[in-house]
Amino acid sequence: MSAPLIGLVAHTGKSGALAMATRLRDQLEKHGAVVCIEERTAEMMGEAGGESTRELANVCEIIVALGGDGTILHLVHEMGDDLKPIFGINLGSLGFLTCVSTSAIEQAVECIVSRSYVKTQRVLLEMEVRRGETTIARCIGLNDAVISRGTLSRLIRLQTWIDGAALTEYNADGLVISTPTGSTAYSLAAGGPILTPDCGVFGITPICPHVLANRSLIVGDSSTIAVSPCEHQGEIYVTVDGQESMAIAPGDMVYIRKARQSVPLAVLPGVSFFEVLRQKLKWSGTAI
């Protein structure tokens, strides 16, 4: 069996990133892996060279992300069309995407090198903004697309359709359209439901709605969700995964649909979504 070719990406702003990236690289190479280091990570480690994230995705069989959940989101946006498995190791507290802490790094290294990790395919959403007949923006996201107000603290009105059928006009601080993966992020904070990764739906959750009857809605991920700002609105922005943001105007149409590609997240064998959920949300099974 050939030696695994592994990409290494670290959040260079995280405390302890340098020491842990060096340790992880040394441990992987000790176990016979070939390690390619992302260019900003290489610079942090004082090493010449380094590859872009897109180059790592082209040549490596798996990418190890050292940081937090945001590190994985950033990685997905930088990899391009060649979405390789991502194994997340958290430098802080346990995350929903980075479900291995640095205390289990030896176990993680053995799992990665032996290729015994388990891959779960995560649905991506595609966000498209059209102005008239012209597409002015398009990108993919792992977590969510958020349409929200700008600097002024006032409600915005958003007309929403599902597969061409009018849904409602939301009068709220904004709207979160989330994948199952993103249901434990901003959507959850806004009162949305927790969705299992394989449930095949999108969540639509208003942020602080003015009308109390406006609750979260679950739609199949074969649906196309369309949102347009109503007339006479202030600044309104659409942001995908907290990574890419752009201003939209009344009359612009924002379309959210399931992307053609998905991204595989790699985890240790025996680690379930529900185990991570219990740990992260500190569910003890009691009211106290």
Write up what this structure looks like:
It is a single chain. It contains 7 helices and 17 strands. It has 288 residues and is an alpha/beta fold. A hairpin with a 3-residue loop joins strand 15 and strand 16. The mean pLDDT is 92. Strands 1, 2, 3, 4, 5, 6, 7, 9, 10, 14 and 17 form an 11-stranded mixed β-sheet that branches. It has 2 domains: 127 residues, Probable inorganic polyphosphate/atp-NAD kinase, domain 1 (Rossmann fold), CATH 3.40.50; 138 residues, Probable inorganic polyphosphate/atp-NAD kinase, domain 2 (Tumour Suppressor Smad4), CATH 2.60.200.30.
Largest sheet: 11 strands, mixed
- What's the mean pLDDT score? 92
The number of domains is 2
Unreliable spans: none
Termini gap = 51 Å
Structural class determined from secondary elements: alpha/beta
Helix content range? 10-25%
Cα radius of gyration in angstroms: 20 Å
Q: What is the strand content?
A: 35-45%
Principal-axes geometry comes out as globular
Number of strands: 17
Helix-strand topology string? EHEHHEHEEHEEEEEEHEEEEEEH
Question: What's this, in brief?
Answer:
The chain has seven helices and 17 strands. It has 288 residues and is an alpha/beta fold.
For the structure shown, list the relevant keywords.
alpha/beta, Tumour Suppressor Smad4, 6-stranded antiparallel sheet, 7 helices, 17 strands, globular
Topology (SSEs and partners):
Layout lengths: L4 E6 L6 H14 L3 E4 L1 H6 L8 H7 L2 E6 L1 H11 L6 E5 L9 E2 L3 H9 L4 E14 L2 E8 L2 E6 L6 E7 L2 E8 L1 E5 L7 H4 L11 E7 L9 E4 L4 E5 L6 E5 L3 E5 L4 E15 L5 H9 L7
